[in-house]
Amino acid sequence: MERTGVDRTSIFLMGLLVLAAILLSADWTPAFAHGIGGKDADFVANNTGPQFFSFFYLGAKHMVTGTDHLLFIFGIIFFLYRLRHVALYVTLFSIGHSLTLLTGVLGEIYVNPYLVDAIIGLSVVYKAFDNLGGFKTTFGFEPNIKIAVLGFGLAHGFGLATKLQALDPSRDGLITNMVAFNVGVEVGQLLVLSFILAFMLWWRQTRSFGHYAVAANVVILTAGVLLTEYQLAGYFLQPGV
């Protein structure tokens, strides 16, 4: 029975590696650099007045479908074995992106969307590189991960703010709607985090974790590099944005 479970895990993780190879040659990055589109974008752009539950839903949906945010969170908890450590780092991340999401939109602080999304891509690269022991091996030291998580949380919040600012939401009810959106983001993050933790608890009990932990972080790092390159290309090709 144990061998069957290990084999299934191995097949799943090998599938991730195959997916990474496909991503290297495919135009996938726009989907990872997620935004608010379609009917959701129309609603935000044309809505007037407070709509707490609608913006709460949009915030939760945005986080659940935000691959760049999820990759960073996955990287953060990858080697965290105690729940209090998970809570600490996720809280730091949440404080960071809540501050800049709210101040960015309500204070009309503009940040170039390509640059901020490039930083978000770098946050994914950073955590995967850290998980692989890259800083200690290459530079002989390990950065303060708490400060890094808080700092990258600020960047992720600005990333969310740029998506909303691009839709020019109405000032009528804006405070209520942005608070609702932020609460939705937090709830969506907790929902996804619960699934990630359940998966990690199961995976760590199998023999395959030791074999594929490095490969999984290489996949995360690769995704972060591609996302960063895509955003930087967009910045230099469209500097007026």
Task: Write up this protein.
There is one protein chain. The chain is an all-alpha fold and 241 residues long. The chain has one domain (51-237). Helix content is 79%, strand content 0%. The chain is built from eleven helices and no strands. It has helices spanning 2-24, 29-32, 38-46, 52-64, 67-77, 83-106, 113-131, 134-139, 145-165, 174-203, 208-237. It is globular and about 55 Å long. The model is unreliable at 1-7 and 21-32 (pLDDT under 50).
Taking all Cα atoms into account, the compactness measure Rg is: 19 Å
- Strand tally: 0
What integer is the average pLDDT?
A: 85
Computed structural class:
mainly alpha
Uncertain segments: 1-7, 21-32
Helices, by number, come to 11
End-to-end separation: 56 Å
Taking the sheet with the most strands, its summary is:
none
Strand content: under 5%
Query: What is the overall silhouette?
Result: globular
Order of helices and strands: HHHHHHHHHHH
Helical residue percent band: over 70%
Domain count, please report it: 1
Throw out a few tags for this protein:
single chain, 241 residues, mainly alpha, 11 helices, 79% helix, disordered N terminus
Topology:
Layout lengths: L1 H23 L4 H4 L5 H9 L5 H13 L2 H11 L5 H24 L6 H19 L2 H6 L5 H21 L8 H30 L4 H30 L4
